[in-house]
Every structure is written in C-alpha cells, then in structure tokens.
Specification:
3-stranded parallel β-sheet; 4 helices
C-alpha cells in the first residue's frame, strides 16, 4: 500500500507548485486505480491548513476548493484513511 504525505497532496492540488504535474498524475492514478492507497488523517488536516493559508500561497485555495479536493480524494473506493487505533 502507498500512503501519501502532505507535500504530495499540496503539490497535486496547487497548480502553481513546481511539482504539480507529476504529483497530480500520481494521485490521479492511485485514486482511479484498483490498488490500495492511503492518506493519514493528519495529512488531510495539514493539506487543508497549508493550501488555504494566505501567507503560504497568494492567492490561497478557497475553503470550497480545498474541501472539493478532499471530497474528490475521499470518494476513491481504493483509499484507506490511516489513524491511530482506538486503544492508542
């Protein structure tokens, strides 16, 4: 299983990053494929915080854009979300 970190998610979403094309293609391939892939819950939070932060990006992604991106990734049937178990 491949798990993606925050940087890959930001690069895939933000067209103004130098790594956008390869990151977007990689995430698209995973999301549309049948192989299992994962995103840790903290990376979802970090993605949202970074992509919408006005001092990191000018202009930042809107809340609606970031939420739509998260919804698109979360709709992938082969995606697993990674988090701590309940006994952690």
């Amino acid at each position: 299983m491949i798990a993606l970190d925050t940087n890959i998610l930001v690069y895939a979403h933000r067209r103004d990053t130098e790594f956008h094309r390869p990151a977007a293609q990689h995430v698209r391939t995973l999301a549309e494929g049948r192989s299992a892939w994962a995103i840790p819950w903290p990376c979802l939070h970090e993605f949202y915080a970074i992509s919408t932060h006005p001092t990191i990006y000018d202009p930042p992604s809107t809340r609606e854009q970031a939420t739509a991106q998260l919804d698109a990734w979360l709709s992938s049937p082969s995606l697993s979300l990674l988090g701590e178990p309940t006994a952690y």
